[in-house]
Amino acid sequence: MNAITKPAEGTAPGDGHSYRMPLPRLRLTPEVSHGPLDGAWWPRCDALELELPALVGSLDPSIGTVTRVTVGTAAWPDAPHEVMAPGHVIEVALSDGAAKMHAITVDCGTVGRWELLVVPPDEPAGTAALLLTAASDPENPLSAPRLLALAESGLDGQDTWESEGGTGPR
C-alpha cells in the first residue's frame, strides 16, 4: 500500500475556492506486511472527523474506496459514527478492545484491510518518527500497544524491540 505524495484537493462549501488538506503524517509498509501492523499514522489532533479525510485522501486509489474504519473508544471517545471524505461517507466503528486502543483498521470493501498504529497527537516528534518507522517495517512483530509501551520506556525499549525480533528503527 502506498501513500500519494500530493495533498487531496477539494472545494470548500459555499465559496468555490480550491483548498488542500494537509498531508497526513503517515508511513506504510513498502511491501506486504508480515506482522500485526501495516504502518503508522500520526494525526495532528484527536478530532477524527478532521483527521480522517486527509488520511483517506492520501491513500493509493488502487486500494479501493475506504468504506469503514474501526478505532478504539478510549483513544477517540468523541468519534462520530460517520465521517465525510472526498466523494463518500466512511462508517466509523468503535471498539473497546485493548488492541484497538492505539490502532485504526482501514477497510476498503472487498479489496483489503490495513491495521495502522495511531501515534498519539501529542507524542514528541523524535518518538513519533521512531514509531512511524518501526510500525512500517514489514518484519515488525509487535502490536500497536506493545510498540507504544516500548516507546514510553525510552532507551530500554530499543533493546527490548530488538530482543523481540524487530530490526530496530532505521
Folded structure, characterized:
The chain has 170 residues and is of the alpha+beta class. It is built from four helices and nine strands. The chain has helices spanning 48-58, 125-135, 144-152, 155-163; strands at 9-11, 18-20, 25-28, 39-42, 68-72, 82-85, 88-95, 103-107, 113-118. It has a seven-stranded mixed β-sheet, sandwiched between helices. Strands 1-2 form a two-stranded antiparallel ribbon. A hairpin with a 6-residue loop joins strand 1 and strand 2 (18-20). Helix 2 (125-135) runs antiparallel to helix 3 and helix 3 packs antiparallel against helix 4.
Summarize this entry quickly:
It contains four helices and nine strands; from the N terminus they run ββββαβββββααα. It is an alpha+beta fold and 170 residues long.
Strand content: 15-25%
Helicity range? 10-25%
How are helices and strands ordered from N to C?
EEEEHEEEEEHHH
Shape: globular
